[in-house]
């Protein structure tokens, strides 16, 4: 198979004109790639967690790129053209939101907030408002509204699912892609790399923040997430 | 008179419960106050240019804080509570917009863009999108729409006025305040400190960028703006 793309945590292999194979690597990076490491087994855990979330979303009528699990490290997915935006949903103030606006970490937002960022390490994924997205032709009004609506639905579905596992969905990043029919699918991964999960009692992080902030072992943290989700 | 507020380029003195005196200083700062200088006569020039623009806006039914000129350095204005947002209108890509999105300076935007920033030197005036403004209670939906609509009207009025003076209105920053009746007024100043003006033929800067980038003498640049506006 031809390698179509290699990102920081995944490889995308060509199956045919309609399908790709998504391979989860053991690499982990933070701060736009300035901090880099490998954790043997991280790829397997994130593949398993992504499988789980994509299946739940599909069951709840969210259109995703997920087709089927192939093995421990790979799943089959629909091939798409990646939209140049990251879609972030926030339920609590954390990470860049706190830093940007000087807001205390852990403050519950009065309702879920959707933000968009341009996908660009070089520009440090800058925040972009809806008028600017339209002006710069990064999405159409309909696409933007679809992404926003879908992101909020995903938030509802995952939040209530995670609640059962005594986890708070603090915030998460989604990516969208367009298939050959022009349909927008939720793509990428849904893992502790792309979501913030906090223990619902202690508020302790069970996600990549343990690596960013050197707070705990990444592997055992991700294992704990998988354990709570009964995977 | 009691000093109510001293900013980087102006002082605000209390006249009474409804009115203030706005005094233009000779100070100029850039990069959140990191670069600082004084140019004797700058205050007078900016006062004169602000007078001129506020009078034009008032004539065009824009509600501003401007009441009347008092002397060379001071005008009388309605007292307001300053809204915590800066409203930026962009016609061409320049300044932070280019840096943020990696866009070439001078690109004409397909239509005017309104952006909001939180007024905060400490946070470096971060960009904030409309949903976040509402979520953080920095303005109501009605206030936000009023500011946006007014900013676009101001853009039309000033752009066509400046065209006669062979100046392009590239972008500008507005501030709004609320008076004791809850009415929103356009406040602050409208000067080469708060606007980007380019010569309509050479595209050379006739604004604070000459100071930011050490390209030309600030005072003779601002004098040239006043000269072109026949002040």
Summary tags:
homodimer; 231 residues; alpha+beta; Phosphorylase Kinase, domain 1; D-amino Acid Aminotransferase, Chain A, domain 1; 5-stranded antiparallel sheet; 13 strands; 35% strand; globular
General description of the model:
The structure is a homodimer. The first copy, chain A, is an alpha+beta fold. Chain A folds into 2 domains: about 5-80, 2-Layer Sandwich (Phosphorylase Kinase, domain 1), CATH 3.30.200.20; about 85-180 and about 190-215, D-amino Acid Aminotransferase, Chain A, domain 1 (2-Layer Sandwich). In chain A, about 30% of the residues lie in helices and about 35% in strands. Chain A is built from 6 helices and 13 strands. In chain A, strands 8, 9, 10, 11, 12 and 13 form a 6-stranded antiparallel sheet that branches. A 5-stranded antiparallel sheet of chain A has the order 1-2-3-7-6, with helices on one face. In chain A, a hairpin with a 3-residue loop joins strand 1 (about 5) and strand 2. In chain A, helix 1 (about 40-60) runs parallel beside helix 6 (about 220-230). The two termini of chain A are about 30 Å apart. The mean pLDDT of chain A is about 95. The interface of A and B includes residues 100, 103, 118 and 131 of A.
